[in-house]
Every structure is written in C-alpha cells, then in structure tokens.
Records
---
Amino acid sequence: MSEEDDIILAELDDEELVQQMFDDLYDGLKEEIEEGVNILIGRGWMPYCVLTEALVGGMTIVGADFRDGILFVPEVLLAANAMKGGMAILKPLLAETGAPQVGKMVIGTVKGDIHDIGKNLVSMMMEGAGFEVVDLGINNAVESYLEALEAEKPDILGMSALLTTTMPYMKVVIDTLVEQGIRDDYTVLVGGAPLNEEFGKAIGADAYCRDAAVAVETAKEYMSRKHNRMSA
C-alpha cells in the first residue's frame, strides 16, 4: 500500500485539498469528492467557490484531456459522476446563496433516437462548467422542446442525434422555432456522431459541437457574447 492510499483529506490545507480533489475527480472517486466538498464548506468556503475552484477547476482538466484523446468516454463518465456527487451537496446551498449561473440549457435527443451517452456527457460537462441543465432525455418530438423552452426560458437549446435517419428532425425543430418567431431567443447547439459542421450550418443551428468538451467551450463563448451585447 502506497502513501497515496492513506491521504486524510481533513488534514490537508485548502490548497492541497483542492489539488487532491482535482486528482480524485480525474479518477472518478465520488465519495472522496463528496468528503472534500463537505470539508471545504465546513471551513467556511462559499458554495460558489467550492463549485468553481474545486469542481469546475477539476472538470476543466478532465475536459481538456478528453478533447486531446488522453481520457475516453468511460473515464469522463466516472469523473462526471463524482462531480454529480459534489453537486448534490452544493445545489441546495447554491440556491440559498443565490449564486450566479453561467447560463441555462435545455438538452435532449431528437425524436426517433434513443441514444443518450453523448447527450448525458454534454449535460454533465455543462453542469460541471456551472450551467443549469434541463435534460429532456431521449426521443423528443418538437412539442417537448417547445414546452421546455417555454417553461424553462433557457439561453441554449442542445439537440443530439446518433442516427443519420434522425438527424433531419433537428431541422424540423429549428424550422418550427423560426415559424414561431422565437429562433433568435436561443443559441441552438447540435451534436452527435453523424453530424458535421456543414450539416449544422445547413439546418440553421448556431454551432455544431463535435464532443462534450467543445460543447462547453462553445456554450461559454455564446454566453459571453450575450453578456457583452446586453452590457453594450
């Protein structure tokens, strides 16, 4: 047994603890992340600081290594699951303190398509970046997207498809938004294995995101543009 195995989180100072949490997130250790979150809160950290510095900080490393092909989907799902454990503790505390959200996203796989690993990964990584995510699950008809947009008033609509046969349904959704005069109210991001940049442009999406890490970067970029426009 190496010394590594006997690290007692509570004995680490704040900086060491955050570094250790980066490692634990990377390794997908949910219980350790939950413990780390509780320790930092116990030391008087603001929930928002725990979220951004420890969890989002850690997931940023995971996202970069996923993008660069060092980590793969199973490892990222484990990391995201550990992140979720920490988020579950922070969510009620964040609500109490009225912490700023980066933005809000509604996401779902389109009608006829029951694939959700990619979508789940995007949801988790977006939450990991500080977005509020409303996940509609799989097989969503245009009506369920419209209802969610109406109810949730998100900044971003994300649609995913894994089949060439369900891809065109994304256009149905976007065309409906255009018909209703609400297309410009949302940033529409699309993704999924059979899609590409050209397809995204052709159907009128704002951007095609080839993976979860790109989706997060793109979403952040659009949010900062939106804030700049609002303050201009």
Note: The CA atoms of residues 106 and 148 lie 7 Å apart.
---
Amino acid sequence: MSAAEPSSRRAGRVARAAGMLFRPGETWTAIDAEPATVSELYLGYIAPLAAITPVCGAIGLAIFGASIAGIHLKPSLVETLVGAVIDYGLALIATYVLALVIAGLAPAFGGVGNRVQALKLTAYAGTALWVAGVFALYPTLGFPLAILAGLYSLYLLYLGLPRLMRAPPERSLTYFAAVLLAALALALLLRLGGAFVR
C-alpha cells in the first residue's frame, strides 16, 4: 500500500460528501451505479463521518460545557468520553438497522429489498447531519445547526429512496413516510438505550 492511497481515499470521501451536499441528484445517480460492500461503506465512509459529531461534541463539552434553559453544565472528562463512545456506537448501529428497515419495507412499496443499496442510501443520506457535527465544537451553536442538517439529510433520503430502492415514483412519498416513521422510532429507541447504558 502506497502513502498516496490514504490521501486519495480521503479526497474521494471529501468529494463524495461535497457532491451529496451540493449536487445530490447527480451524486445519487453515481452512487446507484457503484458496486459496494458493507465493509467498504463502513470503513470508507460511514465510520469516518459518523465520528465527526462525537469527537467534536466531546471537545466542545470539555471546553465549553453545555447550557440548558440557562443552566450551565460541564460533565467530567470521563463522562464526556464515555458519552462520545456510546454516541458513536449508536450512530454505527442506527445506520445499519435503518438500512435493514428500508430494505425490508421496499417490496411493500414496489421497490427492491437490496440491503447493500439500502446501506448506501442511509450512509450517504446521513452526510449533512454528520458533516454538521463539526459545529458541536461549540455546543450552543451545534444543536440548532444539527436540526437544520437533519432536515437536509431527510431531503437527501427522499431524493435517493426511489432511485436506489427502485420504488415507483407514485409510491415513493408513502415509502418515504414509512421510512421516516421507522427512523423516528429507531432514534427514540436508541436514545433511550443510550441513556440506559450511561
């Protein structure tokens, strides 16, 4: 393995993230045609991008703490690091579980239940939310920007869903609504599970 390979992979990851953020239509077309495996998606894209929020969030909490309703909180360094590790693990799990749900629902909406295509969909649709994690360096700013980025990630999911899962256009909105409900339920379950583990 040459020294240029990690650099070229990083450049490819940055280019793909930029494509998802600024040219999602043509980027989904390219993603649809690309062969991929679960390990390639995790090692090459999901794991590095999903780490942005927990790492930046841990740094932000360690430096600034958090303010909730005028109350300033600054957890211990150990609590902060444990929370970051749990959040990272939950992000990795949620990405895969949501892909399984998307693949499982696809036939009900006239689509094809391909798990790798579904994982590509969840991986790349999450780009906006993961990249916005850099704003967690300053927790007060990070939360509202995470909400905006989450909404954009949902838009990316909406665009990619019929393309990657082969759902007919007339059923793609109901398919998206079902996926959205499943994603909200999954987020709630994982958040409760994360709170229990902490």
Note: DSSP finds nine helices and two strands in the chain.
